[in-house]
Amino acid sequence: MIEKKVDIAIIGAGPAGLAAAISAKTEGIDNLLIIERDEHLGGILNQCIHEGFGLEIYKEALTGPEYIQRFIDEVKELGIPVMLKSMVMELNDKRELIVSNEEGLHQIEAKAVVLSMGCRERTRGMIRIPGDRPAGIFKAGEAQHFINIRNYMIGKKVVILGSGDIGLIMARRLVLEGAEVPCVVEILPYCSGLIRNRVQCLEDFGIPLLLRHTVVDIEGKERVESVTIAEVDDNWDIIEGTERKIECDTLLLSVGLIPENELSKMAKIAMDEKTGGAIVDENFMTSCPGIFACGNVLLVHDVVDYVTMDAYLAGKNAALYVKDELIKKPKIEIKTGPGIRFMVPQKIALEDVDIYMRVLEPGFDKNIIIMDGQEVLKSKKFKRVAPPEMIKIKLKKNEIEGAKEITVSVE
Amino acid sequence: MDNDYDALVIGAGVIGCAVARELSRYELKVALLEKESDVCGGASKANSGVLHSGIYSAPKSQKARLCVQGNDLFSKFTQEIGVELQRIGKLVVARSDKEIEELEKLKKVGKENGVLGLKLIDVEEVRRLEPNIRAQCALLVPSAGIVSPYKLTIALAENAWENGVKVFLNSKVTDVSKKENYFDVKNDNLTFRTRWLINSAGLYCDTIANMLGIERHKVYPCRGEYLVLDKSYDHLINHLIYPPPENGSGGLGVHLTPTMEGNILIGPSAEYIDEKDDIRTTKEAMDKLNVQAANFLKQLPKDAYIQSYAGVRCKLIPKGCEASGDFVIEEDEKVEGFINLMGIESPGLSASPAIAQMVVDIIKSRETLKPKDEFKTRRTGRRFGLLDIKGKSKQIETNPKHGHVICRCENVTEKEITDALDNPLGVRTLAGIKYRSRATMGRCQGGFCRARIVQIMEEQYKMGVQDITFRSGDSRLFIGRTKDLRGNDREES
Fold first, then answer.
1. Distance from CA of B362 to the nearest CA of A (A)
2. Does A128 sit within 8 Å of B286, measured CB to CB?
């Protein structure tokens, strides 16, 4: 066993991990370590070759690799140590890690830990699509890796289930590669990806989006030969007689992302069932002192710019924690009320703070209302709200002064 | 002659592999033919993986005798091939007065079959053993256990190979004919000659028997579907949890099966079907399994399924028949040298070592078999992901590639992937890697590691895009390289 002591261990070198590392380093912490299981820095952005990244932060539309390269370059310039092809096998609440790589097992003691493991894709098994189990069924992000990184073409005629952003991006990508995408099928009554992706990836390419539809059967002994789609009612039950068979050789699944919190659970960090991530305070610190979380492992973000912003804060606060400069302030709970799907942070000090949330349903002319008990502290009007888009609200110290328990809802 | 054998086994399921391996102890030239691209392609991979005790089958039946005998043999059997067996015990639980009566009957049958240690336990004891299970009382069956059915079958085949058995994959038997004192067995491109012919073709055992004019038995396929729970729920149960069996239902009833890897299986359903290879899963069965699991479990976790699958039972009795039917294990009375192993459904896995011995005994009754001077056994330790810290550390010392984790959910290492690719049978499919290494079997179902495995196949094994398949040659993952489709467009325009 190789033993090591670091000030901050950062688990995962995607956009969250790299930004956290840069910010911790800038805050004066030198004994940092980024631990990454893949052989490259950058995480999933390496395969996101479409543009649209960085609009918030850089005010320009970068591709995924361009966006993340800025962070990779900075990490290298700052000389931040990195362990690649290294897998964190264990983490406990005392911030001790066991890491496996080709050198052997490493036992790492960290004064602070930043969790930035990202998320994984939901699978066919989770949503229980019946039928045959042939080749030709891919998760959208997996297909994106095969096409953009390995240059394998996954099929000629591809039905896509789920209108999440990756599904939409992949619909366009497949068409550009010469494949046919007969339709994107979505069980919800609205598109679950961003509007710009719906317009640029589906509408501009004439790909139909079938709302309130799902895949009910897969056929093919060796390779997918067809899928059957059907309309669903409000309870997602199949409406009989609406079944329709579509010949295709591939089914792509873009049916949601799950924060990869196996390590967080191992460390017995308190979790939020709604986000699927850790419960954090305004400093992005979890229930385990010294363990911070940011990026998609905390909650699935819509755009990477917000991941970067979170992660800068998480990294900075981890550094402050190590230096014993993170001021302990009394916290109150901030809860989701009607209409809000999830929100972070879940605990805040009564200071200026940004809160991020997603709504349950799309709507027009809605107010996000911040309440302390029965008292309205703040109300912010939105022309349009939609589940795919994260909503960020700034709470000022003077707006929440004296609050006991804050609830956020949509009206 | 090259393709001249003393014994030829048709079908590389658990029975065929166990028989071939048992025969490889002797100075015999043995061939094992399998129509699929790998061994364990049928029912042997898609069952509960339960070592049965022998409480279900009618006293004096082959099923009862071979199951009890097989259960006895199983510890040594699995040790010799380096496969783990855990005798975790079974609870057959009663949730009504009628079911309590059934437990009494089972206990009686079990005792008559020679099953040891059976004990009726009361509600308090059930609660102590299984706090998450609803039951009024239960029958405790301590000799029941769990084993990975595909690991077992693959290990048997590979150990048979190590002991000289020739294994032919993608080798569907198209014709069998009886000559004077041998058989000619044909596949698509070869003719094999053998003195002894063993029919362990599973669901297709009747097809093979028909080739020799034997039409006494017909196979009625009966599908069983399963749901697989995420391993984070492994604490829900400690034993196999069964209902009392329902006569004529086609199966033993939907049960909860812990597995060595922590995933609890829910199933199987029982549905007679028309096509033997119809291993589709259905919404109806999945919904039913979900309900039936809820009948056992006080709290059924939501959204906890990671996969579903189905296997097909090889039944010799049609739907609606009250009797459960028996194994047919015999040298055919008319066709000398033709040993039929038919209708080997549950408890076939448990009976496999006993069935293999029985086949050898049939041959021994007719000729003297000389044991080989050296018979190789196998020693394989636990896989990396299941080792403790010390074990993991040691394993990386033996080969640094053990330190590189490829499958993150199940912690399968690069060395384990290449070991799987280097299997002696020459199987180089994603399913072959999956069943040998466990990569892609975790909660993300290959979301990340499948691409890394393909990369290893491409870079280290120089496999081309057409060669990367899930199972057989037609189950290709890719249609080619990117730009291939665009290239065609341009040529046309």
1. 38
2. yes
Least confident of A180-184, A299-303, B348-352: A299-303
DSSP element (H, E) containing A266: helix A262-266
Subunit contact A125:B303, Cβ cutoff 8 A: no
In a shared domain, residues A185 and A270: no
A55-79 pLDDT tens trace: 999 999 999 999 999 999 999 999 9
Last residue of a domain, one of A255, A273, A307: A255
Q: Do B486 and A146 touch (CB under 8 A)?
A: no
| Contacts (Cβ under 8 Å, ≥6 apart) of A193 | A163, A164, A165, A167, A168, A388
**A123: which chain B residues are within 8 Å (Cβ-Cβ)?**
306-307, 443-445, 447
Q: Which residues contact A410 (CB under 8 A, 6 or more apart)?
A: A338, A339, A340, A359, A360, A363, A366, A367, A368, A369, A385
The two structure tokens encoding residue A387:
């589940």
**Residue A183 domain boundaries:** 123-255
Could you give the ipTM of this predicted complex? Answer: 0.95
pLDDT in tens, B265-275: 999 999 999 99
* A111 and A141 fall within a common domain: no
* CATH number of the domain residue A334 falls in: 2.60.40
Does B484 touch chain A if contact means CB atoms closer than 8 Å?
yes
Q: How close A79 comes to chain B (CA, Å)?
A: 24
Total domain count for chain A? 3
- Dihedral of alpha carbons A64, A66, A71, A72, sign: positive
Reply yes or no on whether the pLDDT at B307 is more than 50: yes
Let me know whether A281 and A248 are in one domain.
no
Strands B85-86 and B145-147: antiparallel
User: What digits encode the pLDDT tens for the residues A319-347?
Assistant: 999 999 999 899 999 999 999 999 999 99
Query: Helix and strand tally (H, E) in chain B?
Result: 13, 23
Confidence of residue B490 (pLDDT cuts 50, 70, 90): very low
Domain co-membership, A135 together with A176: yes
Question: Which residues have CB under 8 Å from A26's CB, separation 6+?
Answer: A78, A316
Looking at domain B85-146+219-315, its CATH architecture is 2-Layer Sandwich (3.30)
DSSP tag of A275: T
Q: Based on the domain organization, do A21 and A111 belong to the same domain? A: yes
